[in-house]
Design brief:
single chain; alpha/beta; 2 domains; seven-stranded mixed sheet; two-stranded antiparallel ribbon
Length: about 375
């Protein structure tokens, strides 16, 4: 290896070593957390973690958006979760649902009604709860907070009064009953308010996971039917409708459209016809061109252009090529004066401006008659 190469490699290695030392001495590597928003699947399905957990445990999960008594009786699954607002609660169906539970079915009803009117009109649900000795009560009470390590995340919009001694009542930290499980024959009936402890955000907490295991995975049955809806994701238009004034948005869009069209289209309707300005007469333009050529001593270029075109046409039409033949043809066709001026145009001598005007007039006449 040459001496220059050895020096270059040594210098490069020394620089790299110095940079490595400086980086090790002055720089610090530390972990950095980055928040990744939940996927659209998780935003739409707030029970996504529960569904995946049940499937991993070997439980099959089937979802429908709404249902009625027929859907429950015809289902192959013997365990059914019902979101109360999406179920048709006919008064006559309460006895049939109670008998279905008595014959070995598991029915979990989650009360998620938003209004008192909607809740009071679910006559079939109220009768079903009465069948199992449960008295619901809707109203705002002390909410659950995530800092409580022992209490599951119950919804605080419904509470229950249990009229049977053999029912299992689960209370929140304030002593209010939030979930009731009772057995009838070979089956079980479960009722709660909005089951926040089953939502993906909370099911990982220890009390929520224990309660979910007890209700969903502790039995021998493996199949679950969920009658529940999806959560609508909040897009741009949804945010505008929710937080903004739609009237202002519509007016702004209208003004923007009008201004945009006004800027792009300069005038509306038919295009105006502008009167054409008459051009200068041919004689005036010819004189102007002649004066320009005279000023630069180039009148011969104008004359030579006419002569060249006359030569070309006579050679093509009459087969004439020599100057004498051309002059003779002009003499026969136009006369002696024209032939004399044409002979003068065939020369290369400089011409005066007055002679130029006469000569060009004769050349134009000859050219038009060929």
């Amino acid at each position: 290896m040459k001496r220059d190469s050895i020096v270059g490699v040594s210098v490069t290695a020394a620089v790299l070593a110095l940079l490595a030392f400086l980086a090790w001495y002055f720089l610090e590597i530390y972990p950095r957390q980055r928040w990744n928003p939940p996927s659209r699947e998780a935003r739409v399905n707030e029970y996504l973690a529960l569904d995946r957990w049940l499937k991993e445990m070997g439980h099959s999960v089937r979802l429908v958006n709404s249902g009625n008594l027929s859907a429950v009786l015809a289902a192959e699954e013997r365990q059914v979760f019902i979101q109360a607002s999406l179920f048709s609660w006919a008064s006559a169906d309460a006895a049939s649902l109670a008998q279905w539970v008595e014959e070995g079915g598991t029915l979990f009803v989650a009360l998620d009604f938003q209004s008192e009117w909607e809740y009071r009109n679910a006559a079939g649900l109220l009768r079903l709860l009465e069948e199992f000795g449960i008295q619901p009560s809707k109203g705002s009470t002390v909410p659950w907070h995530r800092g409580d390590p022992e209490t599951p995340a119950f919804g605080h919009d419904f509470s229950f009064e249990v009229l049977q001694d053999d029912a299992l009542a689960i209370e929140d930290r304030t002593g209010i009953t939030r979930l009731v499980r009772t057995e009838r024959g070979e089956g079980r009936f479960i009722v709660s308010g909005r089951p926040r402890f089953l939502h993906s955000r909370f099911i990982g907490d220890a009390p929520n996971a224990r309660l979910a295991w007890t209700l969903f995975a502790a039995g021998d049955e493996r199949d679950w039917l969920f009658i529940r809806g999806t959560t609508r994701t909040q897009g741009l238009l949804g945010s505008l409708f929710r937080h903004g004034n739609f009237g202002v948005l519509a007016a702004s869009a209208l003004v923007l459209l009008v201004v945009g069209f006004w800027a792009v289209i300069p005038m509306f309707g038919l295009v105006r016809r502008e009167a054409e300005r008459p051009g200068k007469p041919l004689r005036e333009r010819f004189i102007a061109e002649g004066r320009f050529l005279k000023a630069y001593g180039a009148l011969g270029f104008y004359r030579d252009a006419y002569v060249k075109e006359i030569r070309r046409r006579l050679a093509k039409k009459e087969g004439l090529s020599t100057d004498d033949e051309l002059i003779g043809h002009v003499f026969k066709a136009h006369g002696e004066r024209e032939a004399r001026l044409f002979a003068g145009a065939l020369g290369k001598e400089p011409i005066k401006y007055r002679e130029f005007l006469k000569m060009i007039t004769i050349l134009k006449t000859i050219l038009e008659r060929i």
